[in-house]
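Dig into what follows:
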Amino acid sequence: MKQQSKARAHTNIALIKYWGKRDNKLFLPMNSSLSLTLDAFYSETSVELSDSFEADSFILNDQPQNSQETAKISHFLDLFRQTAGIKTAAKVVSQNFVPTAAGLASSASAFAALGAAMNHATGLNLDLAELSTYVRRGSGSATRSVYGGFVEWQMGTTSADSLAVEIDDASWDIGMITVAVNTNKKTLSSRDGMKLTVETSAFYPAWLESAAKDLVSIKEAIHKQDFQQLGEITESNGMKMHGTMLGATPPFSYWEALTVEVLTKIREIRRQGWQCYFTMDAGPNVKILCRYSDAEAIQKLLTTAFPDNPVIISKVGSGVKLI
């Protein structure tokens, strides 16, 4: 057997956050979430299956990965191999066009691309909804990178129905700006941060209740194309998620001093009349939801304030595809 496939997937930024697992093996979330897929950041991954390979290999950003990282990929590939009834070893080559492990959702695009390539290489040809349940096992947020636009990850009750659903193509002048505060690898991974929050934060039960209400409200805003409501819910939900971390034992935060300066600047820009709302994932980098038609003007204001930090505009991204 010899088969090869290559796929591209874009990152997504959660507007209603996923923060915490109820099943660490199946990656089942504690709450449903909703995201926006971004065009500017993506991963391209190829999978080659061959009987001539003695074992799996994994090359990331032109660098062969160690046995520990390769084992993680092998475990993920096994999900597809078991369903396909094969044991063929694979060569995986991936390129992330987004900083890895810096709170910019590189794992989402990486596992979505890997899953799509493996889906095709094995001949399984799962539909996108079922594929989202597979890529979830690599990274929870990868579930949402299967689709473009606004995407809901429904928490479900089992592994089979914890999947992604496309909500809206976001073709109504939606954009996002990323201010890269620090793109180095985080000292505390998202997985470890989630676990600590779920197990110890006094604020976590209230977060779950609030997130469920926020999801209903933001879907209404999307349906009505009410940008202000969309932005206000996005900003509020993101800050509430970060608040749960301050209630953990020990308390922790992904913010840096410059993060706070950026948030203050965004509020100032908003007072000037621009519609822009911030959100953050597990990292110090700030994402700003805005009208795409306003993005260049807002980018200029941010670049002037923070000349040493990349300020990147993104339009709405598409779903995963073979290339």
